[in-house]
Amino acid sequence: MTKKMLHTCVRVKDLEKSLDFYEKALGMKEVRRLDYPEYKFTLVYLALPGDEVELELTYNYDQEEPYDLGNGYGHIAIGVENLETVHEEYTQAGYDVTDLTGLSDGAASYFFIKDPDGYKIEIIQL
């Protein structure tokens, strides 16, 4: 049986603010949008150019309080070719980023950036 990763979903409080972040900071593009006004929610699917795996932003119309991220959510990971340059760009743009770091065995260099809802995105050196 063939299996294929399709998407990851995160719930967002302010759809426009989240779209702005994912498009400007991470370079994602809107693939499709499904609006269900009768059920009071909208789904927006984003992807990196040339990538098949999508990020689904679920926007519930009546969500007034920030979502409780809990302790089960880990992170989304995106690879970049020049980690230090991207880190500097995000820092200069005023995004919430951690310091550059790496694993002690040298297997990975990375930092984290937070989206408007507090979800962490790990930016890893390719």
From TrEMBL:
Assigned keywords, A-Z: Metal-binding
Pfam families: Glyoxalase
Regions that span the bilayer: none
Alphabetical list of PROSITE patterns matching this protein: GLYOXALASE_I_1 (PS00934), GLYOXALASE_I_2 (PS00935), VOC (PS51819)
Stretches of the chain forming a coiled coil according to its record: none
InterPro entries from the UniProt entry: Glyas_Bleomycin-R_OHBP_Dase, Glyas_Fos-R_dOase_dom, Glyoxalase_1_CS, VOC_core
VOC domain span: 4-126
Descriptive protein name: Aldoketomutase
